[in-house]
Amino acid sequence: MKLADTLRIEGGRILATLIRYTGDFHLAEDALQEATVVALERWSDDDLPPNPAAWLMTTARNKALDRLRREAKRSSKEDEAMRLLDETPPPPDDRDDRLRLLFTCCHPAIAPASQIALALRTICGLSTDEIARVFLVKTPTMAQRISRTKTKIADAHIAYRVPDDHELPERLVPVLVTVYAVFTAGHHAPSGRFDARVDLAEEGVRLARLLTELMPDEPECWGLLALTLATHARSGARLDESGHMVLLADQDRNDWDHQAIGEAAQIVERQQRRRRPGPFQLQAAIASLHGLAPSYEHTDWREITGLYRALEAMQPTVVVRVNRAVAEAELHGPEAALALLEHVDSDWHYVWVARSDFERRLGRRAEARRSLHRALSADMNDSDRALLEHRLAQLG
Amino acid sequence: MPRYAALIYSEEPSSPPSDAEWGQVMADYTEFGEKGEAAKVILGGEALHDTSTATTVHVEGGKGGEIMTTDGPFAETKEALGGFYLLEAADLDDAIKWASQIPGAWHGHVEVRPIMEFDQE
Question: Chain B partners of A107 at a C-beta cutoff of 8 Å?
């Protein structure tokens, strides 16, 4: 593995532990960054230490201690420094630290958009610039939002812990939404190649599985796990030999992970019997129907359309509307689908990609081109852009 | 342990409460006060006269400038600051748990603000 990848992945793994150890988001991040700089100086692509995570952990811990010692001379932080000195370095307790970090980021005293932004920054190590793209805001705005959130956690003493059992249900929704955002950032990267952050998709699946262990009686936890499994199962077929994105209709279904799809379908079925439907279960049902279909033509569009309608009743968002329109187009034709998007005004490029596709199928090439131009004016990853430019060229 | 100010905002009644209503409010606050003091969570707190008694001060032009006074509270809002507690709690969750037991939170709102701790040499 390349040095940069090792540092990014191992660094992400130990940050949660460092935060527990120092009790301070800012300090933990700074210490990790300093340790990373040292690693970049000492290591090379073919000369990595046998246990990079342990090396980074120890180095970052020492950096944090150095800083605390320096500050202790000037202030009352001496106690804190002494306390850390007494402790042996904590072993990276992956499972619990990740959950602690997740629940802390998703504390109800933090605004929802800031919860996801902070999670993407700390759990996933996305750059502020990338997170700004996810939220369609300017980078300095996002930098300020993240910094303010970390400061609030420190100053208001938001606890770094997993809530008690009786608190879990009310803390659940923002956590599920955040894990799905983590997964999505990995499944479809906000910048660079669309598969640039596949490790985050895997992290999303892992976190979803941890949540089902923590809350086995919550159907939506299982819904999230099934959704991430069934979606991630298709990732092996999304690239052609030249590295271009392959659309669902054209993917070689032999390259899908049918074991993961099977697990997802089984979860969906088991949870349906509980009769406590929710947005994640519905999306999981849709994803597993796609996974089980023998071909794009032989997909159960009627069932999928029905599921999207139910989802839209719960979550009337632009994203759901666009996905529903794509399914309706297969069932009722492009004209009906286009009508669904007529009054949707959004900068999200998929609105315009979908519109353009319906317009093309209706033979309205000039409109299809106009919609694609509108789509291309948005921020997107390189793979999406290449695909859209290719389509535009095909429209002539 | 971190300390928090619990600032109690509620609508000021347009007419004086009846004896029964006043008695209930006092009983609720007394109950909270006893519970909070027994748990050593309440470090202090006061009730305030209503906002018609407030005077807002501003020094125009900064330090040493002209003292400007305005009759009334700083911000004229439907719900006004009516009192506060100084709480000591384990963390924000603990502080929120206590704040939710302040009678003012049942009809109005309680703002929980961490106290800035200065280093003591």
Answer: 92
